[in-house]
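User: I need a structural model of Transposase from Deinococcus xinjiangensis for a docking pre-check later this week. Nothing fancy, just the predicted structure tokens so I can convert them on my end. Input:
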Amino acid sequence: MGRPVKHEVRLSAEEEQQLKVLTSKGKTNARVVKRAHILRLSHEGKTVQDIMDALHVTHGTINNIRKKYCDHGLAAALFDAARPGRPEKFDGKDRAGITGIACSEAPEGHAKWSVRLIRDQAVELGVVDGIAPSTVFYILKKTKSSRTAKGRGA
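Assistant: Understood. Predicted structure tokens for Transposase:
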């Protein structure tokens, strides 16, 4: 006889029904389906080894899903938490300033703006403290600005 289960999964009838629907649908993320199967098999009393063999997952994965279910509920066990990512370095005011520079007349001695010229002008005018030319390019790309077009509209 194996060790007692540390995080025992006891699904309500409603949760069981939700998992059945999730695993029978064809449009669900594979990761979510696998997690639902882990929870269903755990609820049915299958051992960790049985679940590992049936679903080809590791012992740690099973324990993590069980623990998330016991600690935070069904949604936390099935779906990953949102990952906000790194905050944007340049806000709308900075982007508008860079776009404004790109829409203005090119400096004397230049036929048109280059991303390096825009970068230098933005730093010189205090629009930004520092910025890479590639970032200037992406900011202008998002505004659909074209430095090579006849007009200067952003």
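Before docking, keep this in mind: The mean pLDDT is 88.
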